[in-house]
Amino acid sequence: MDEVATAIADPVRRHILTLLRDEPLAAGDIARRFAISRPAISRHLRVLRESGLVRDELVGRQRIYRLDPGPLAPLINWLAGLVRTDRWERHLDALETEVYRTRRERRSSGPAEHRREHTA
């Protein structure tokens, strides 16, 4: 998971992953979309390949890169644990319990006239 987090920490690598999400691309096609040098793009692709986020295949004279989102799953699960939604569910359940308890207590205290005597 650390290797994947390190790989996606760089904005260029995240942009490459976004490009590869839509379609497999040759290294040259990827490099043409950036203002940095082709060797720099090759280094970014190597980091992504070593983290398992992209796979490459030699087709003729071109190296074609494809996204492999599988290694992202542990990181996604870890991040999802940080933004737990069940916290609000517990608060709403507690509120619902309090509303039911209050209604039950009002019903069990008798008719409305009797309640007024004790509240004034």
UniProtKB/TrEMBL annotation:
<keyword id="KW-0805">Transcription regulation</keyword>
<dbReference type="Pfam" id="PF12840">
    <property type="entry name" value="HTH_20"/>
</dbReference>
<dbReference type="InterPro" id="IPR051081">
    <property type="entry name" value="HTH_MetalResp_TranReg"/>
</dbReference>
<dbReference type="GO" id="GO:0003677">
    <property type="term" value="F:DNA binding"/>
</dbReference>
<feature type="region of interest" description="Disordered">
    <location>
        <begin position="100"/>
        <end position="120"/>
    </location>
</feature>
<protein>
    <submittedName>
        <fullName>DNA-binding transcriptional ArsR family regulator</fullName>
    </submittedName>
</protein>
<dbReference type="InterPro" id="IPR011991">
    <property type="entry name" value="ArsR-like_HTH"/>
</dbReference>
<keyword id="KW-0804">Transcription</keyword>
<dbReference type="InterPro" id="IPR001845">
    <property type="entry name" value="HTH_ArsR_DNA-bd_dom"/>
</dbReference>
<dbReference type="InterPro" id="IPR036388">
    <property type="entry name" value="WH-like_DNA-bd_sf"/>
</dbReference>
<dbReference type="InterPro" id="IPR036390">
    <property type="entry name" value="WH_DNA-bd_sf"/>
</dbReference>
<feature type="domain" description="HTH arsR-type">
    <location>
        <begin position="1"/>
        <end position="87"/>
    </location>
</feature>
<keyword id="KW-0238">DNA-binding</keyword>
